[in-house]
Design a protein that fits this description.
51% of the residues lie in helices and 10% in strands. It contains seven helices and three strands.
Length: 219
C-alpha cells in the first residue's frame, strides 16, 4: 500500500520541480525582454540627446535590472560600469532640500508662507517683495536663472557670501511665473542649515581647521 503513495509523492515533487524550472525560465525571459526594452530606450535617448554615458536601473521587488551605457571617460575610452561608475546627482539634491524643509515645517521651526528674511541674517535677498519658502519650492521666486552659483570661484566662498555674490535679479513678480531656479534651491538649503543649526556647526568646524592650518609648526 505504500508504493503507490511513494510513487504519487514522487510525481508531485517532479511536477513541482518542472514547474519551478519553467517559472524561472519564464521570469528570465521576462527580465531579458525588459532589459532589451531598457537598452533600446537608453540607446535612443543617448543618440537624440548626445549623452556620452548613463546608467539605467529597473527595480521590482527583489528583482534588479542594472545596465551601463556609453563611456564614463571619453578621452580614455572607459566604459560605464553600472556598479562602479558614479555620476553627480545634480538637481536630485533639490528633492532632499525640500524634504528637509518639510521636516522643519513639521517641527514648527519653518513657516512656508513667512518671508524668508525672517530666517536669514547674512544673505541679502534680491527684489523688493517678500519671498516665501513655498515660492522657492515651486520655483516661483521670480528670479532670473543664473549659473553663477556653480562658478568654482564662487563655490569656494562661504555659503552666505556665495549666495549673495551669485544672487540673480528678480525679473518676475513673486509667485507669478514658474521658472527653475538653482539659486532658489540653494537659498532654501542655506535656510535649512541655519535653522537646524548644521550651518553654524559647519562654520565652527571650518574655523577650527583654518586656525590649525594657520598655526606655525614647531620642532
Amino acid at each position: 500500500m505504500r508504493r503507490p503513495f511513494r510513487r504519487s509523492m514522487a510525481s508531485v515533487v517532479a511536477a513541482l520541480a518542472l514547474w519551478l524550472v519553467a517559472a524561472a525560465a519564464a521570469f528570465a525571459d521576462e527580465d531579458a525582454e525588459i532589459a532589451a526594452r531598457l537598452d533600446a530606450l537608453a540607446g535612443a535617448v543617448m543618440v537624440s540627446d548626445q549623452v556620452p554615458g548613463a546608467i539605467g536601473a529597473i527595480v521590482s521587488g527583489d528583482t534588479v535590472i542594472l545596465r551601463g551605457y556609453g563611456l564614463s571617460d571619453i578621452a580614455a575610452g572607459t566604459p560605464v560600469d553600472p556598479r562602479d561608475t558614479r555620476f553627480e546627482i545634480g538637481s536630485i539634491t533639490k528633492l532632499f532640500t525640500w524634504i528637509a524643509v518639510m521636516m522643519l515645517v513639521e517641527e514648527g521651526r519653518l513657516d512656508l508662507e513667512a518671508d524668508v528674511t525672517r530666517y536669514l541674517s547674512d544673505v541679502e535677498v534680491t527684489g523688493g517683495a517678500p519671498l516665501t519658502l513655498a515660492q522657492l519650492m515651486s520655483h516661483r521666486g521670480g528670479f532670473e536663472e543664473s549659473y553663477a552659483i556653480f562658478d568654482p570661484a564662487v563655490a569656494a566662498l562661504p555659503r552666505a557670501e556665495a549666495l549673495s555674490v551669485a544672487a540673480p535679479d528678480q525679473v518676475f513678480p513673486r509667485g507669478a511665473v514658474t521658472s527653475c531656479s538653482n539659486l532658489g534651491a540653494a537659498l532654501a538649503g542655506h535656510i535649512v542649515g541655519e535653522v537646524s543649526g548644521h550651518a553654524s556647526a559647519a562654520r565652527r568646524h571650518r574655523h577650527r581647521g583654518d586656525r590649525a592650518l594657520a598655526r606655525p609648526r614647531t620642532g
